Automatic annotation (TrEMBL):
SUPFAM superfamilies linked to this entry: Thioredoxin-like (SSF52833)
Lineage: Eukaryota, Fungi, Dikarya, Ascomycota, Saccharomycotina
PROSITE patterns: THIOREDOXIN_2
A GO BP entry: protein folding
InterPro entries assigned: PDI, Thioredoxin-like_sf, Thioredoxin_domain
GO cellular component: endoplasmic reticulum
Keywords of this entry: Signal
Family the entry assigns: Belongs to the protein disulfide isomerase family.
Pfam family for this entry, one: Thioredoxin
UniProt-recorded name of the protein: Thioredoxin domain-containing protein
Superkingdom per UniProt: Eukaryota
């Protein structure tokens, strides 16, 4: 091998090394920018910027919180108009944990980065969705594999997202837990949507707990205790009545009685809450009775 060949080989390897260094710096910059954006966003609002699928699923798949997700792109005009509104809504829930221990999280998902994973099935932008808590449901038996290789080995971000979904096939959210917002894009309307969904979901979950024979109410949960007493009275009648028509009449009379109480006690908050809860219990029991009767037919 002569001097000219050695020189050319040296310059080729030098150029190849420089190219690799540039790629490493580029990938490092992407990660650094995403992390910086996340910290900057966290400092100015209650909205967290999603920087990985692992972060998204770990936030959404919790038992103690609801998660409101905004899917957007940088080129979408309506997304830009929604940004300050979404942040304003999020600040209404900042550091707030309700009487049942639930909080509301807010996430931003940039669909230019997660288009093939988190945003794959979306019809357009912006999209707002509310994800309900697991309420004790199991989602992933094994912990998510969130390890990322060092910068010098890291693959481009888009491929990393795809690889994460392949490595963690159970990292998903059941459709029954997702509600998509379709109203006006203003603070009051979005806030009302969140409050309504959270209220109804918590009520439905408490009804399920009360009707669970194995569930024991907490000492300070009077609503649960009163619900247990009420539902047991209704169920005892149903168990002792073999005629479905008589059961249906009994439930209808009970419903009418509760609705009359609601009409005549509009200003008594605690009374209304208990009566509304009893109506939910009654509706749930009625649905179960109807299912049993339908199966027998």
């Amino acid at each position: 091998m002569n001097y000219t060949t050695l020189t050319l080989d040296f310059h080729y390897k030098l150029r190849e090394t420089k190219t690799k260094i540039m790629k490493i710096n580029f990938l490092s910059s992407i990660s650094g920018i995403l992390t910086l954006l996340a910290y900057t966003n966290a400092a100015t609002s209650n909205v967290k910027t999603v920087i990985s699928p692992a972060q998204f699923y770990e936030t959404c798949n919790r038992n103690d919180s609801y998660t409101v997700v905004k899917y957007y792109t940088s080129w979408c005009h309506h997304c830009k108009r929604l940004k300050p509104i979404f942040e304003e809504v999020s600040n209404l829930y900042a550091d707030h944990v309700d009487e049942d221990g639930f909080k509301v999280n807010f996430l931003n998902v940039n669909c230019e980065l997660f288009g093939s994973t988190l945003c794959a099935d979306l019809p357009g932008f912006p999209i707002i969705e509310l994800v309900k808590p697991l309420h004790g449901l199991s989602v992933v038996e094994e912990p998510l594999n969130t390890e990322i290789e060092p910068f010098w080995k890291r693959i481009p971000l888009g491929f990393y997202n795809w690889a994460f979904s392949k490595k963690n096939p159970d990292a998903k959210i059941g459709q029954e837990r997702i509600l998509r917002y379709q109203g006006r894009r203003d603070t009051e309307a979005i806030h009302n949507f969140i409050a309504t969904v959270v209220g109804k979901d918590k009520l439905a979950n408490k009804v399920d707990l009360v009707l669970d024979d194995d569930y024991q109410c907490h000492e300070d949960d009077s609503l649960c205790k009163d619900g247990k007493v009420y539902s047991q009275r209704i169920l005892e009648y149903i168990k002792g009545e073999p005629v479905y028509g008589n059961i249906a009449n009994y439930i209808n009379k009970e419903r009418s009685k509760l609705e009359n109480i609601l009409r005549n006690n509009k200003n008594e908050g605690s009374t209304l809450k208990l009566v509304e809860f009893k109506l939910e219990l009654l509706a749930n029991i009625e649905a179960r009775v109807d299912d049993i009767n339908h199966d027998e037919l």
